[in-house]
Amino acid sequence: MKCSENAINVMAARIYKGIGRAWIVKNLSTPKPEEAIVKLLNESSKSEGTITIEDFNKKKSMLRRILSESVGAVDGVVAIGDDDFPAHRGSVKNSERPIFLFYKGDLSLLSTESNNIAVIGLLNPTQEIEAIERKLVANLVANGAVIVSGLALGCDSIAHLQALDSKGKTIAILPSPLNDIMPAKNKDLAKDIVASGGLLISEYLTAPKSKMQLSGRYQERDRLQALFSNSIVLSASYAKNDIGNDSGSRLAMGYAKDYSIPRAVIYDEKQHLNNPMFDLNRQLISEEPSIVVFSEESSATALPKILCSSAVVMAPSPVQQSMI
């Protein structure tokens, strides 16, 4: 398993109380020796007592042990400060930037040189939704795009499967450790993605301790779908309403807007006007009239716009850096 000393140091520092992503970005964007890290932790951590080199090394040993148990499921871990740590797209505050990733497969697919396009949507698409999403994904792959999605059932699975059927590459971003694929029904799909030259990534080494923590991980996964894509396409989704409907797709599209990642939706007013499965699509169109809209009729003009969309990599502003 590939794992630098810097990656272990970053993960160990993150364990301490009060040490978040923003602190890691500010202090460990370049590799530092253990002594310097421990000094910084003692100045900032909310942990009780003085942090010692011995204590820090115990945490590193624990991480190495857990990593050893993931051999086979994980090819490596890469962290901020490593030469091969991928740059994210868009403008994002430090507290939301990725700081380490566990991966299996071709990590180079996260490069900003890769034309990554996320395709996401609801869990229970109709055959009509599946058909138009498959057409879109097939066209994207034919034009050199790498398909990003979240390995969930429904539209996510369709995106990954069509990418593979089209002999393309796809990236699955998981809310779970790579040795505990979620959902379990997609374990074989995850294997196929890697076997076909694709990539699995996760920010997590261990299983969630509660349903609340798992829910938070799904939201964090949604942000990565935006941060590692040049653009993001919504296949179909319910909008949030007072009868309990909501979706991770809404969150992912919201993150994309916040980060200035170009967005697109599948929608045909003649066919989908009264279909609640397209409520979020309609909402996004009303909020952003210039959003790219893909349909059977508009495919010739919409497809090039999606393919040519490019999210700029931007350094955080001083205001963003203060938001820890």
TrEMBL record:
A UniProt-annotated Pfam family: DNA_processg_A
The chain positions of domain Smf/DprA SLOG read: 77-288
Q: Which Gene3D superfamilies match?
A: 3.40.50.450
The alphabetized list of GO BP terms reads:
DNA-mediated transformation
**Any coiled-coil ranges, and where?**
none
Does S-adenosyl-L-methionine show up as a keyword for this record?
A: no
Annotated keywords: DNA-binding
One GO MF term on file is: DNA binding
Regarding protein family, the annotation reads:
Belongs to the DprA/Smf family.
What this protein is called in its record is: DNA-binding protein
Organism source for this protein?
Pseudidiomarina andamanensis
